[in-house]
Design goal:
Elements lengths: L5 H10 L2 H7 L5 E3 L2 E4 L11 E4 L4 E4 L6 E2 L1 H9 L3 H9 L31 H17 L2 H9 L5 H7 L2 E3 L2 H4 L7 H13 L14 E7 L5 E8 L11 E3 L11 H5 L2 E5 L2 H9 L5 E3 L8 H9 L4 E5 L4 H16 L3 E4 L8 H7 L3 H10 L2 E2 L51 E6 L4 E6 L2 E6 L11 E8 L2 E8 L3 H15 L3 H28 L9 H11 L4 H11 L6 H12 L8 E5 L6 H10 L6 E4 L18 E5 L9 H10 L1 E9 L6 E9 L2 E7 L6 H6 L1 E4 L4 H13 L3 H22 L5 E3 L15 H18 L7 E5 L2 E7 L2 H15 L8 H21 L10 H8 L3 H13 L3 E5 L6 E5 L76 H9 L5
Parallel strand pairs: 10-11, 10-12, 12-13, 20-25, 20-26, 21-22, 22-25, 27-29
Antiparallel strand pairs: 1-2, 2-3, 3-4, 4-5, 6-7, 7-8, 8-9, 13-14, 15-16, 16-17, 17-18, 18-19, 23-24, 28-29, 30-31
Helix pairs in contact: 3-4, 14-15, 16-17, 18-25, 20-21, 20-26, 20-27, 26-27, 28-30, 29-30
């Protein structure tokens, strides 16, 4: 077995604190001069006799035990394990090994290191786990890495590619003893597989570097172990395999990619060639180890020629002669690689350096052992005759690295591209070209819209032979590999194919450049709208009752109730045309209808102006196109799905632009460079969430809409769902498509235009809380969104600034009145720091308490109720009741009293609503009706014939549909007229009714 290096043992003794180990075992140490003393846990110690010396990092029992030592000795004594096992435990960084006072220490039978093999794994999973464990051990074992280095196997990729490992008995230490059921099962399975020896239970390949043999499917078929411990007793075998017949072919993937194979005598010789750049190499398992698996693999993969690189000794020469005859029978030609007498591939490569060149020389000078007659049924190639024994040819070196190779000839761009383009199919993205008897089929050119890339799928064929691969024609290595393999498959010289590929490349560049030019010149496609559709959409936008029309159309499309939420959602998506759009979060419990609200609002947005995702990664927004989000709606179905992108979303909402610096590769030089990505806004964000607690940063930036969960709303939804099953419902679905098309066309006619609020200085807003700084901007943006929606009912005004003409429309008092009502609905219940759902719970509890107190004729402060009472009254779930009542208790709306039984609680309501508590409102907003605001023409907004500025009147609130009456709008010539007729404004009147006395 591999010996633990002395320096490693000394490092553990010096670096692992004995004091820490002793105290972690439960021994209390006290200072006694320069030493520490405590009671020895290994005998009944009434007076402290255990001495720990921090200076020397040693311990000793001066009493009955009379034992001592280092940290390793302490672990051996306390855990009942061997010296090696104790070292492994300390290396695994388990200083706290046991606790409690244990005076009789027995040998442990449970594994104290984590086992890589699980009890429920099958045999193949077990072998894979062992290979992974050995592989990890190798990377942590300097002696094994030094051995590989001594054999010249220093390629960093090799260890990981072939999963080389090292067996140092550590695997056995991770397994429970065989006197436990788990240990017996695991050890029995490993013995059946040959990992552990049947007679002793020791690791079969202990002290060996392990080379696993994999199938193409990744299964472990075998293992080879090479002992590396010096000074082994005479007769100890240095080469080990798993018991049983040899299975599989080492590096079988070489047979898949090449028809010419180098065959070595051992795995180490194989890796010698592999590290030198000759990847088409495999091995037999010794001089007599060419197995049926090798024969089957050579025939299956169509191996045509084998370079036999066996050792140059008597046994190797004899085995090579036998193998040559066997290959002849398989129809495979052969060559004998002649190393100097007595040498093998590994020794030769280490002595004659560099190995890349010395091995290439031997492959070129390999002794040709003649060609094999082809079977009569085999089809002869027409390119060149096969060499005969009388006329031997010089073999071509196999996959050797190109040493001092002259660069490929450069084809002038001015040269004539004399290649026939047979067909160009845009539908299949396929191009077919011919030159002589060679045919090239190219696919995937349509995806290349950059001058720095030409990644395509190329199939080159000649008669019945062909080669196909996907490569970037700008990458020299990929081109070289393609040409080499294609030349092998087609039986042509590489120079011929290189010229062909050059012609193909120039033609593809020409087609690619034309494709890029057409893409850049193409104007952005806009949705086609007939004149009839345009007229219909414009009539909707100019309708004096536009908001009523919007609400009616929502209802016809199947969205009942939620009047304010629908209008706010509609205005919010319209605000995408402003420089600082609104953002909306729809909050509700699951199945309450938040997704239906969002989907219906988004349905009215043109498809080209909305982007909808279920989830987003943290970096996804940064790598969108620079203008992909500008003036669009970004909708995310569930706010939790955007949690990883929340930082980017907040930045985009606040700053209106995202920038990120990222490392990328320069296509010209291949060097890493810093690249900047930029995504421009503004963008309107629309999210839904079931979370009861919303992120404060998100809450500050968004309007939070709460879905109506009342029973009446549920009943209305049920009626609509039943109606959808009828013939009338079928007809309404047809009408729904027409309405969606109408509103999408109407929104296409809305364009970004500046909105000026001439009444901004007269507006008021609450200022008692810091968060109102952002809420105030939401209010102002909502006013502008109302005006923007009615842009086709407003005169477009112009002004000159620094020689530039600016166009804009103006806000009217009617816009402010509508915004006041909507902002009260959306924010009136949030400024008191109660979430909408929590406030609904408070009002429902107040309703229950009021009714019960009236029935029982008692005072409110004498009435007690439980959570069960609240669940029964509200119909809410236990989780909802618990969360919202806890919040109300925390904010002192509820007072908890201990109940009469056990630890239960009853509650007292310390809140009583006033006359208008049930109606959401924001105190301190300007009363448009009672104010002295004037419209752009100078008329008073507060007069009985108050100007509405063309804004829709009579839109219904969540409770009632207001009486419309007559209203004033701009004259028919909306774009040019500035004169208005004024009439009573029911919206303002309703606002005055709800906010009487508020200034």
């Amino acid at each position: 077995m591999a010996r633990i290096p002395d320096d490693e043992i000394q490092r553990l003794k010096n670096e692992i604190s004995v004091e820490r180990l002793v105290t972690s075992f439960g021994v209390e140490l006290k200072r006694h001069g320069a030493e520490l003393i405590g009671r020895c846990p290994f005998h009944d110690d009434k007076t402290p006799s255990l001495v720990v010396s921090p200076k020397t990092n040693l311990w000793h029992c001066l009493g009955k035990c009379n034992i001592g030592g280092s940290a390793i000795d302490w672990v051996m004594r306390t855990q009942g394990v061997s010296f090696r096992h104790a070292v492994e435990l300390l290396k695994a960084d388990h200083p706290s090994l046991a606790a409690g006072e244990v005076h009789v220490v027995k040998k442990g039978t449970t594994a104290k290191l984590e086992s890589p093999v699980t009890t429920d794994a099958d045999e193949q999973q077990t072998l894979l786990s062992v290979v992974e464990f050995y592989h990890k051990t190798l990377k942590e074992s300097p002696e094994a890495l030094r051995y590989l280095e001594s054999r010249g196997l220093t390629n960093a990729e090799m260890v990981g590619h072939f999963k080389l490992g090292f067996a140092n008995r550590k695997l056995g230490l991770t397994l429970p003893d065989k006197n436990r059921k788990a240990g017996a099962d695991l050890r029995g399975r490993l013995q059946r597989l040959g990992i552990l020896r049947a007679e002793s239970g020791h690791e079969h390949m202990n002290g060996s570097v392990v080379f696993p043999v994999f199938s193409l499917a990744g299964e472990v078929l075998g293992m080879y172990g090479r002992k590396i411990t010096p000074g082994l007793r005479e007769g100890t075998p240095l080469h080990l395999y798993l018991p049983g017949p040899h299975r599989g072919v080492f590096n079988e993937e070489a047979l898949v990619v090449s028809k010419e194979i180098i065959l070595c005598e051992s795995i180490i010789d194989t890796l010698t060639f592999w590290c030198a750049g000759f990847r088409n190499v495999t091995c037999s398992y010794g001089v007599n180890g060419f197995t049926d698996d090798h024969r089957a693999a050579f025939q299956k993969h169509g191996t045509r020629s084998v370079w036999i690189a066996y050792d140059r000794d008597e046994a190797g020469d004899a085995a090579a002669e036998r193998l040559k005859e066997e290959l002849d029978k398989l129809g495979i030609t052969s060559h004998r690689v002649l190393f100097p007498k007595g040498m093998d591939a590994n020794e030769y490569a280490r002595k004659v350096t560099p190995a890349e060149q010395s091995l290439a020389v031997l492959l070129n000078k390999a002794e040709w052992w003649g060609a094999v007659k082809k079977k009569p049924a085999a089809k002869e190639k027409t390119s060149a005759p096969e060499p005969t024994p009388e006329a031997p040819v010089e073999p071509i070196p196999l996959a050797a690295p190109i040493v001092n190779e002259a660069p490929a000839p450069v084809i002038s761009m001015a040269a004539e591209v004399d290649i026939e383009v047979v067909s160009v199919s845009a539908a299949n993205d396929e191009i077919v070209m011919r030159h002589g008897d060679r045919r090239f089929r190219i696919r995937g050119l349509g995806k290349n819209l950059s001058h720095d890339l030409m990644k395509v799928n190329v199939l080159v064929s000649r008669q019945d032979e062909f080669h196909v691969d996907t490569l970037d024609l700008y990458a020299d290595r990929q081109r070289a590999a393609f040409l080499k393999r294609a030349a092998e498959e087609l039986g042509l010289k590489e120079d011929i194919l290189r010229k062909d590929l050059g012609r193909v490349f120039l033609k593809l560049e020409e087609l690619r450049d034309e494709q890029i030019r057409k893409t850049l010149e193409a104007a952005p496609q806009e949705a086609q709208m007939s004149e009839e559709d345009r007229t219909e959409a414009l009539a909707l936008l100019r309708d004096p009752k536009l908001l009523d029309r919007i609400l009616d159309d929502f209802a016809k499309c199947g969205l009942v109730g939620e009047e304010s939420n629908k209008l706010i959602g509609y205005l919010a998506v319209i605000s995408r045309h402003l420089e600082s759009p609104l953002a909306v979060v729809v909050q509700s419990s699951s199945a309450a209808g938040k997704s239906s609200l969002m989907d219906m609002v988004l349905a009215f947005v043109p498809e080209e102006e909305r982007i909808q995702y279920s989830a987003m990664t943290g970096q996804s927004l940064y790598y969108m196109g620079e203008m992909d989000l500008k003036h669009k709606v970004l909708a995310i179905v569930e706010e939790e799905g955007a949690s990883r992108a929340s930082y980017a979303l907040k930045l985009l909402q606040s700053e209106g632009v995202l920038t990120i610096a990222s490392t990328g590769k320069d296509p010209a030089t291949g060097k890493l460079v810093t690249q900047q990505y930029r995504v421009e806004g503004p963008v309107m964000m629309f999210l839904t969430t079931t979370a009861i607690d919303i992120d404060e940063e998100l809450l500050n930036r968004c309007l939070v809409l709460s879905v109506n969960a009342d029973r009446e709303q549920t009943q209305a939804i049920h009626r609509l769902q039943r109606e959808a099953q009828t013939l009338e419902g079928l007809m309404k679905r047809q009408e729904r498509r027409e309405l969606i098309r109408l509103h999408q066309n109407a929104q296409r006619l809305l364009k970004p235009i500046a909105v000026v609020n001439p009444y901004a200085k007269e507006l008021t807003f609450p200022d008692s809380l810091t968060r109102t700084r952002r809420d105030h901007m939401k209010y102002l943006t909502l006013i502008r969104a109302v005006a923007l929606l009615h842009q086709h009912q407003r005169s477009v005004r112009t002004t000159t600034w620094r020689g530039k003409t600016l166009e804009y429309i103006e806000v009217t008092p009617g816009d402010i009145a509508i915004a006041n009502r909507l902002v009260s609905e959306a924010m009136g219940r949030s400024l008191d720091e109660l979430r909408p759902e929590t406030r609904r719970m408070l009002l429902l509890i107040d309703e229950m308490v009021t009714a019960q107190c009236q029935q029982l004729k008692i005072e409110r402060n004498d009435f007690r109720f439980s959570r069960r009472d609240v669940r029964h009254h509200t119909g809410w779930s236990a989780t909802q009741v618990r969360i919202h009542m806890d919040r109300l208790q925390e904010m002192e709306y509820l007072l908890a009293h201990r109940g009469g039984r056990g630890q239960s609680f009853v509650y007292e309501l310390v809140f009583e609503r006033g006359d208008n508590t049930s109606k959401p409102h924001i105190p301190g907003l300007i009363d448009v009706y009672d104010s002295n605001l004037t419209d752009p023409e100078g008329q008073l907004a507060g007069s009985k014939r108050g100007q509405n500025g063309g804004v829709t009147e009579g839109w219904r609130s969540a409770e009632t549909r207001m009486d419309t009456g007559s209203n004033g709008v701009f004259a028919p010539n909306h774009e040019n007229s500035t004169s208005v007729e004024i009439d009573e404004n029911p919206v303002v009147a309703a606002h005055r009714h709800n906010h009487a006395g508020v200034r």
